[in-house]
Design goal:
Elements (H helix, E strand, L loop, with lengths): L2 E8 L2 H10 L5 E8 L17 E8 L11 H14 L6 E3 L3 E4 L2 E13 L2 E12 L15 H5 L5 H22 L2 H7 L9 E4 L2 E8 L5 E5 L2 E5 L6 E3 L5
The structure holds adenosine-5'-diphosphate (ADP).
Length: 240
């Protein structure tokens, strides 16, 4: 059983899990009732109001995962989250790191990792799932919550338990068999594949996920692959 640390308030669950990683701690999950400095990618802020969502980070110490493969953990978590939410509503995966519902952002994920030579030493995988917000600040037009989408009032700790039930077997599978079986689960849940998208100012059509998780797309008459990294993907008519 994964150890869970539930904190009242923290700067960011990713920052806390990284402190645990650097202190040599083993695998665990950090959950906070509120984050005072929640982060997205590229130091963007993440709104994490008290008790309104699941603000959590996993500290993973995968066996035999190479440094370049660390990013695969995001797909493992996104797939697990969609499965955990399935009884409530249709959540889908927006490549590379969001889970969306009704075309809006329900969850953002942020993976960070430390390496030992070629191998992955630790991965901190943070995710914020909006659950109980009845409205969002006008500055977040793409945000949504499970309550707004489905009317369901799901408590953060309940979602944490449902999530871990799905995550642990997928995480084991990823370590044993690599990303391919995980991507087989992700493809039918993708909100990105088949869509017209804009990436770094260029417009094209998302075609497939490569076996390393890169997005294969048709752009300027060619087929190219884009690695997750720090790119933002937008639909041509909206967020997804
Ligand atoms: P991107 O959407 O480009 O992948 P990130 O994954 O870095 O962006 O997420 C950070 C962005 O998410 C912020 O700049 C903000 O626009 C938005 N955001 C912040 N808090 C929330 C929230 N609770 N729910 C949905 N979106 C949020």
């Amino acid at each position: 059983m994964r150890q869970i640390f539930t904190l009242d308030s923290v700067d960011s669950t990713n920052a806390q899990a990284k402190r645990y990683a650097l202190a040599g701690m083993g695998e665990c999950m950090v959950i906070a009732r509120e984050q005072t400095a929640g982060r997205g990618r590229l130091s963007r802020g993440w709104a994490s109001a008290r008790d309104e969502g699941l603000w959590a980070s996993l500290l993973l110490r995968p066996r035999q995962v190479r440094a370049q493969q660390a990013g695969g953990a995001v797909f493992v978590a996104a797939l697990s989250l969609c499965e955990a939410l399935a009884p409530f509503g249709k959540a889908r995966i927006k490549w590379p790191n969001d889970v969306v519902m009704g075309g809006k952002k329900l969850c953002g994920m942020l993976a960070e990792a430390g390496f030992h030579g070629q191998m992955c030493d630790w991965i901190v995988l943070g995710f914020g799932v909006n659950l109980l917000q009845a409205e969002f600040d006008k500055a977040l037009p793409h945000a949504t919550s499970l309550l707004l989408q489905t009317g369901a009032r799901l408590a953060p700790e309940k979602l944490a338990a449902l999530f871990l039930e799905r995550f642990e077997p997928w995480y084991e599978r990823w370590q044993q068999d690599g990303l391919a079986p995980v991507l087989e689960g992700v493809r039918p849940l993708s909100a990105t594949l088949g869509q017209s998208v804009r990436i770094e100012g260029r417009e094209g059509v998302a075609l497939d996920l490569r076996e390393d998780g890169a997005l294969v797309w048709q752009v300027d008459g060619k087929t190219e692959a884009v690695l997750a990294g720090d790119v933002s993907v937008r639909g041509l008519d909206g967020y997804v």
